[in-house]
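User: I'm curious what two different proteins look like when written out as structure tokens. Can you demonstrate?

Assistant: Sure. I'll show them one after the other, since each token string lines up with its own sequence. Here's the first protein:
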Amino acid sequence: MTTELGETPLTIDELAARTGVTVRTVRFYGSKGLLPPPAIGPRRVGQYGPEHVARLALIEELQQQGMTLSAIERYLRQLPADLTPHDLAIHRAVVASWAPDTVDTVSRRELERRAGRPLAPGDLERLGAMNVVMEAEGDTYRVDSGLLRLGVQLLDVPLSHEAILAARKVLTEHSRAAAHELAQLFRGEVAERDARDVKSLSAHMHPWVVQALLTTFQRSLREELSGWVTGSGTD
């Protein structure tokens, strides 16, 4: 039996080994609703798949950003129930981007080690178009560590270099417009507060705004693509 993504299902011990957590932690997260229940396989053995791996990675990233378990519960509860492992990977990449500075300068060998695969010149060009990897001095590269894993996954998506550049331009322009309007909206709320209150509000609002924007965008894009595929199939 294989999972929906064609991957062999994992036992709870294999899931723990792959994600670097203990079996006890996996069970605890399951009891708190942070992980969906496993499928039940032969001999009533629980079978875990890519979604469980992706959720554990997201939980780990949220913890590294200083979120408490109760805050993580609220965060995961607000996510749409139909998110795929890839959707969860996007959320994890966004969460990683909350860190003040995730850009490192590394050698080509280290870059490929982190990417988990050899990178051809065309791959580096595509990662550059995504603003994930930039050439530095000599044989070194500046890499956005928070987005590298997602960028590498997108290398296998059949999009041209030009399409990636155009998509980045669209996303950048609309993101700046949304950020400007939200800043204007919140400005009146913080006008009478002192600097410490403003900093505290910003820290709390950042993950909430990012999650809201990301979830709304994913739903909208899915609806657009679904309508496009349906419409093209009727021609």
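Here's a second, unrelated protein for contrast:
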Amino acid sequence: MNAVCLLSGGMDSSTLAYLVKSKGYKILALHANYGQRTEKKERACAQKIASQLDARDFVEIDLRYFRQFGASSLTDEKIAVDRYDPARAHLPNTYVPFRNTNLLAIATSFAEARGADAIFIGVQALDYSGYPDCRPEFIDAFRKVITLGTQETTHIELFTPFISMTKMDILKLGTELHVPYEHTWSCYQNEEEACGTCGSCHFRREAFAALGMTDPIPYKEE
């Protein structure tokens, strides 16, 4: 069995890749460069994880048009990355407009071209941002898009095993799968030392702390 696995190099997608491998799939890794602040670090981590898993393929796609669009602190350096704020009533400015739809469309093309059986994406709806393109309703809608937009002989399943899991749940699973978290990166802002203050850093650190584990990546001293 072959599966396209969206691999950013982050904690969730790397755990997902290890889970996919454990299910007996050969991995077709798909990594996106979209002009994000930590693009180089994410690419290096994704390549390392793909190598560790003997991925059948590792394809990088260039989506730097997101940088031209802007409207996200990940792609526009004039916008400061939001610090984690549990009281925030709106989406954090790290939301990249309609990004997951772009990624899943490309993943579908890749899967159909290679005759893959499945697509895996590590979206999570429980304890984080409220991004609209991480909701179960969105995933269900995109499953219909795959069916309607591909050949009649094409059968691709879209899996989101983490959608109802917390970051702590994902980390617990990853430790059982022996995911090398020292080769992953979650920070939205820095590439050498994680900022520790963005939403992604917050939830990563919280998960490690809850399980009594030490996060192996470096953090900037506050």
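A detail about the second structure: Helices lie at 11-22, 39-52, 65-69, 99-114, 136-149, 167-176, 199-210.
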